[in-house]
Description:
Number of helices: 12
GO molecular function, one term: oxidoreductase activity
Family: Belongs to the short-chain dehydrogenases/reductases (SDR) family.
Strand order of the largest sheet: 3-2-1-4-5-6-7-8
Pfam family, one: adh_short
Number of strands: 8
Helix content: 40-55%
Keywords: NADP, Oxidoreductase
Shape: globular
InterPro entries: NAD(P)-bd_dom_sf (IPR036291), SDR_fam (IPR002347)
CATH superfamily: NAD(P)-binding Rossmann-like Domain
Amino acid sequence: MAAVFSKPLAKCFPDSIISQLFPPPSTFDPLRDIPDLTGKVAIVTGGAVGIGYHTVLALLQKNVKIYIATRSETKVNEAIRKLQEETGREAIFVHLDLADLASVRRAVRELANKEEKLDIYSTTHQLTAQGYDLHFGTNVLGHYYFTSLLKPLLKRSTQLNREKARVVFTSSNAFEYAPGDGIEFDVLKDGPARDAKIKEYGFSSIPGKGAVWKIYGLSKFTANIFQRDHADEFSSYSVHPGGIQSELTRHSNSFEQLLSKAVMKPTPMGALTQLYAGTMPEAGNVPGGYFIPWTRLAEQGPRFKNEKLQKRFKEWVDAELRAFAESSEGGWNA
Length: 334
C-alpha cells in the first residue's frame, strides 16, 4: 500500500518526513551503477555491522581498498571474514572509539602510517571519555576531530586524482527534534547546567519528545553544520539513510521493536544513499548536498541558515578540541 502513495508523496511533499519514511522505489543499484574504483582508498566508521557493513561490502565489490574503523575487534574480525567470503577481498581493521578523542588521534596516526591519501570517508553510527554527551561525542565531536585530522590525506587525494575527495556524514531527519534554534550549548558537556536542561526536557519514548530525543536531534543538527563547514576543502555530504532496521533498535521496548519491523526497511537499503553520495559522478555536481532516501537531494530547512549560530558553534567546538589537544600528548595534530 505504501508503494502506491510513495511517488505522489515524493512529488507533492518531497522533503517531508512521511516521504522520507515511505520513499519511492530506488533506481540506484550499487553493483550495477557504481563505476570501478580500483586504486581508491576508503574508510568507513562503524563498518562491521548494519548499514556500515553493507557500505563496505559494496565498496569492496568495486575494488576499493577499505578500512573499517570501529572499536569492537570481535565484531570486525567476524565482519572481515564474511566480507572476504562474499567478495574475495579483505577489509582492514583500524581501532577507533569516536567517544574517546585520544582514540580518534591514534586511529589517524595508524592510517597515515599506511596510506598517502584517502579518497572516501563515510560515517555510520554514556558520556564520552572527555565528559561530553554520548550522542554529541560520537555523532559530532568525534567525527569532526577525526575529519580534521584526516584533512592532509583527503587533500592529497584531491591533488593526485584532480577531483575532490568525498566525505559522507550520516545524518537523519531527527535533526527536526533539536530544541530551539537547533543548538543548546548547556547540554553539550557534563555539568549542572546540562542536568538542569535534561530535567526541563523530561523523559519520553515518543519521537521528538523528552531529553533523549532532543539531544539526539541536536547531535544530528550539528553534524549537518559540520558537513557544510568542510565543503570548500573536499566534497562533503550529509545523508539520511532512511527508516532502517538496525542495531540502534536493540534497546527499544517490545512495541517499538514490533513497529520497527513493520515500517522499517531492510538494512542493506540504508547504504544506498551514502554509497550514491560517496561514489557517483552525479553527486559530485552538488558538493555540500543533503540527500534523503533514496538518493534524493533535499533542503534542510531555515534553521540551517543561521550563520551567527553556526559560527558560534564552530568556535565552541574548536576551543574544546584545542583544550583537549593542549592537555594531551602530541597536541592538535595526529
